[in-house]
């Protein structure tokens, strides 16, 4: 499963803002759920598939959060993206 990953420490209420050149899945999750995601197991996340960008996702609590950018299954592209933390 190919994806772009960034792990950031964020305060609760901060917003992850993702800009991307393609429609994309933007998933924000804690470490346990990211481990499940990488292993192909069920996971809980904030976000989803975005056709309109930027994607703005607010984290519910302070701690380390994983931001995952993943194209829909079967798609490939050279994407341009930025991940910014606001707040």
Automatic annotation (TrEMBL):
Pfam families: DUF1883. Residues 1-84 form the DUF1883 domain. InterPro entries: DUF1883, DUF1883-like_sf. This is DUF1883 domain-containing protein. It comes from Erwinia aeris. The lineage of its organism: Bacteria, Pseudomonadati, Pseudomonadota, Gammaproteobacteria, Enterobacterales.
């Amino acid at each position: 499963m190919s994806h772009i990953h960034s792990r950031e420490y964020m305060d609760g209420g901060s917003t992850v803002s993702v800009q991307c050149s393609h429609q994309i899945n933007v998933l924000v999750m804690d470490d346990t759920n990211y481990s499940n995601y990488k292993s192909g197991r069920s996971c809980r996340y904030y976000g989803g598939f975005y056709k309109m960008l930027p994607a703005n996702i607010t984290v519910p609590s302070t701690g380390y959060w994983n931001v995952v950018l993943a194209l829909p299954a079967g798609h490939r592209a050279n994407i341009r993206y930025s991940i910014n933390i606001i707040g």
